[in-house]
Specification:
With 391 residues, the chain is α/β, with parallel strands linked by helices. It folds into three domains: 104 residues; 46 residues, 2-Layer Sandwich (Alpha-Beta Plaits), CATH 3.30.70; 204 residues, Vaccinia Virus protein VP39 (Rossmann fold). Helix content is 36%, strand content 17%. The chain is built from 15 helices and 13 strands. Strands 5, 6, 7, 8, 9, 10, 11, 12 and 13 form a nine-stranded mixed β-sheet that branches. Strands 2-3-1-4 form a four-stranded antiparallel β-sheet. Helix 1 packs across helix 2 and helix 1 packs across helix 3. It is globular and about 70 Å long. The protein starts with a helix and ends with a strand.
Length: 391
């Protein structure tokens, strides 16, 4: 592909990504994969170059742009070489018109930026929210040792404070290590430590999804005890058993729950769990480094629904915790309404419950919990709080 053809391909992909963001369609990575599956002629260098252009444009446009061309023009306005590819050649984009408008450059939609500032994210930390993220791994100690895995991966570095974590350059291929490692952000690994899960305990991962934190819990427990992995999404939950088998994990049980009727499937777990982890569905404002188009998907209405869902899940979790046990609330969000505010609301409604600020080697005190940010911790953004039920 010529440079103009690469630019045109990026514009076409951006058109699809913008439309999907507006309509709740597939993620950018999925759309890029589909695009090139239909274009086998594009070599690996072409695919890489187009992908870089796409994400460069997504990161530069805070508000959802009108379309792919407007998004790419925002980048071209800062890059003379890229602007030159708008040459009207056979497979390239049409020349830039004298009065043609580019998408607005920015961090995020204005309403979201204001919420971040109101939640205590200062100006100096904002740009890091959309930087490119490294590739972090969690070494599965049930099957391997970090030092051994590090010798097999060029550029692998230990992550201070996380003995099972390795950091690699973005794009490193780790498929050959399936079962020995899990791709998991260092921040995600750190907040899981807030559970203090121990061998022999009964632990519930209430929003397990595909099971990243479930498998980390099983490793923390050295394969002894029980981890009940729950979710209301059958497709996501079905991905967990094969991952557990590859990882040599035998203490995980899965259970599909009905939304808003979760306790119907959990009667024997009422008041029986040593720890309940609520890795709640959230805005994902802490994960923009990996999913920058998520800024275009969130609306005030969707955020309001997510906050209500989180509050509901905390109520469900509270019923499962045994006297003296713990509830750990985690969101990959930097918004106080989903983190600090949720915890304050929960404690006000549950006399006797107390907050026990976690110590995970990352983050800063925020409200009654900890907050991790890309700028301060070099991880995705998270809020985590550990809540104790009275004996």
């Amino acid at each position: 592909m010529t440079p103009p053809a690469r630019t045109q391909a990026a514009i076409e992909l951006l058109d699809r990504i913008v439309a999907a963001a507006a309509e709740g369609g597939a993620a950018a990575d999925t759309l890029i994969g589909r695009y090139f599956a239909d274009r086998r002629y594009a070599g690996s260098k072409d695919r890489r170059a187009v992908r870089e252009l796409v994400y460069r444009a997504v990161r530069r446009c805070g508000e959802r742009p009108a379309g792919g061309r407007a998004a790419m023009l925002a980048v071209a306005g800062e890059d003379v070489g890229l602007a030159a590819t708008f040459d009207g050649s056979a497979h390239g984009p049409e020349p830039i018109g004298a009065d043609e408008s580019a998408a607005e450059v920015g961090l995020a939609p204005v309403w979201l930026t204001e919420l971040l500032r109101a939640s205590g994210i200062d100006e100096g930390e904002l740009p890091a929210l959309v930087d490119r993220a490294p590739l972090d791994l969690r070494v599965n100690r049930l099957r391997a040792e970090p030092a051994e895995i590090a010798t097999r991966l060029e550029g692998a570095e230990a992550v201070a404070g996380l003995p099972d974590a390795l950091r690699l350059p973005a794009g490193t291929d780790v498929a050959a290590l399936s079962g020995l490692v899990e791709v998991q952000d260092a921040g995600s690994q750190a907040v899981t430590l807030a559970t203090l899960a121990c061998p022999g305990e009964r632990v519930v991962d209430l929003c397990a999804g595909g099971g990243g934190k479930t498998l980390a819990l099983a490793a923390m427990m050295a394969g002894e005890g029980t981890v009940l992995a729950c979710d209301t999404d059958r497709g996501r939950l079905q991905r967990l058993p094969p991952r557990a088998e590859r990882a040599g994990v035998t203490i995980v049980e899965t259970r599909l729950l009905n939304p808003n009727r979760e306790m119907e499937m959990l009667p024997e777990w009422r008041g029986a769990a040593d720890v309940v982890l609520v890795d709640a569905p959230c805005s994902g404002t802490g994960t923009w480094r990996r999913n920058p188009e998520a800024r275009w998907r969130l609306t005030p209405e969707r955020l309001e629904r997510l906050v209500a869902l989180q509050a509901h899940l905390l109520e469900v979790a509270a019923e499962l915790v045994r006297p003296g046990g713990a509830l750990v609330h985690v969101v990959c969000s930097l918004l106080d309404g989903e983190g600090r505010g949720q915890v304050a609301t929960f404690l006000a409604a549950h006399p006797g419950w107390t907050a026990e600020r976690p110590s995970v080697g990352f983050g800063r005190a925020h409200g009654l919990g900890l907050r991790l940010t890309p700028a301060h911790d070099g991880t995705d953004g998270f809020f985590v709080a550990r809540l104790k039920r009275p004996c």
